[in-house]
Amino acid sequence: MTPRVAVVMGTRPEIIKLAPVVAALGPAASPLATGQHWDADLTDVFFAGVGMPRPVQPLRGVGGRDRAGQVAAMLTGLTDWFRTDRPDAVVVQGDTNSANAGAQAAHHLGIPVVHVEAGLRSFDRAMPEEVNRLVIGAVADVHCAATRGNAEHLLRAGTPASAVHVTGNTIVEATRRALPAPAVRAAVQAAHGVVAGQYVLATVHRPENTDDPERLRALLQALDLLGLPVLLPLHPRTRAALTAAGAVLPPAVRGTGPVDHATFLALAAGARLLVSDSGGVQEEVTVLGKPLVVVRNSTERPEAVDAGFAELTGPEGVLPAARRLLRPGWPEELSRRPSPFGDGRAAERVAALTLAAAGHDGAGVLTGALAVG
Question: Do residues 234 and 254 touch, judged by C-beta distance below 8 A?
Fold first, then answer.
């Protein structure tokens, strides 16, 4: 019999990163949407973009709550759902409230939990995501670490070595599949009024940047000083923060609505530089071979920094970091470097480990998984 695997997703990055896993699991996959992201621009367009029908959404009223309210509502709702329609395993991805609730609900019911992108650590508990990572790490049964560094974090925390596997990150194959052909990229860039190699692509959405009006203004001013036009797709949170702060985009910065994944990648591929506080963008630039200024207090993805693709800084350091990343010859060097996040076969490894956890022999399709135990 084909096992049933619930694949829990609630945010745009989870849709993108779990789509290859859902495809690799085939008929065993039962995607579930929590409704953490409820805006159609952050959900429906991304399901369509990865070719996934909109999953079953057993929960209502999750989006828009504060973090505690979201986790509580999702934990209760997913527990009820799993109790009624029990899967053989549950897959969660990353460090969202949805992943936290999905992992706990499955664990409390004795259902095996597979954590995709396990072992990331910023060691900054002021980040809500860091607490989610710690909780999921405590209850997961199978830890699919993107890198050996992530695996080492888990081992040092006492996770059994037999439960930790280095699979790579599914963002590599997701990015490769979603990146439009060169002609389409050129058309997308033209439609957005930018010329390849002559603009900056920026994203801002993390609370540490949007919830502090002075920091948000400082970041916008830094973007204005880069000497190139800046394209800024606006996350709903950022747009609301700008309105609340009475802030106006400076002359060099042009805001747009949210864009789907393929459009974002087309714009990223043509940008001379990216500036972002996104975790996923830190991974995507390593696949695209692009330089990135990460505007955050800390990062759980030091691999992008260590490999030379990114620099971590606050708003005050954006301009000097950009100058270093754009020094003569360096962008060309980055375009030739391999991504530190894997070889593009993570999804098949995750799927095999998941089928094994669900009681199905996945060894026959486990090609190249790197168990550290």
Answer: no
Q: Is 261 a catalytic residue?
A: no
Q: How many CB atoms lie within 10 A of CB 53?
A: 8
What residue ranges of the chain are covered by domains with CATH 3.40.50.2000? 5-170+344-371, 182-336
pTM equals: 0.90
| The one catalytic residue among 143, 205, 235, 261 | 205
Q: Which CATH number fits domain 5-170+344-371: 3.30.830.10, 3.40.50.2000, 3.60.20.10, 3.40.50.300?
A: 3.40.50.2000
Predicted confidence (pLDDT) per residue in 103-149, tens digit: 999 999 999 999 999 999 999 999 899 999 999 999 999 999 999 99
Q: What CA–CA distance (Å, rounded) separates 73 from 237?
A: 21
* Residue 142 parent element (H or E): strand 142-145
pLDDT single digits (tens) 209-225: 999 999 999 999 999 99
Q: In degrees, to the nearest 5, what angle opens at C-alpha 294 toward C-alphas 290 and 297?
A: 165
